[in-house]
Amino acid sequence: MNGQDPIRKGPGEGVAGNRSAGVPPAGFLRQNDNVSVRNRGHLPNWEAATATYFVTFRLADSLPQNALRNISFARKDILSTAAQMGRAISELERKRLLKLHTRRIEKYLDAGVGACFLRNDAVAQVVADSLRQFDGTRYQLFAWCVMPNHVHAVFQTIGGNTLPRILHSWKSYSAKQANQILRRSGEFWQREYYDHLVRGVSEFHRARKYVIDNPKKAGLKDWPWVWPKD
Question: What's the average model confidence in pLDDT over 56-71?
Answer without folding.
Answer: 76
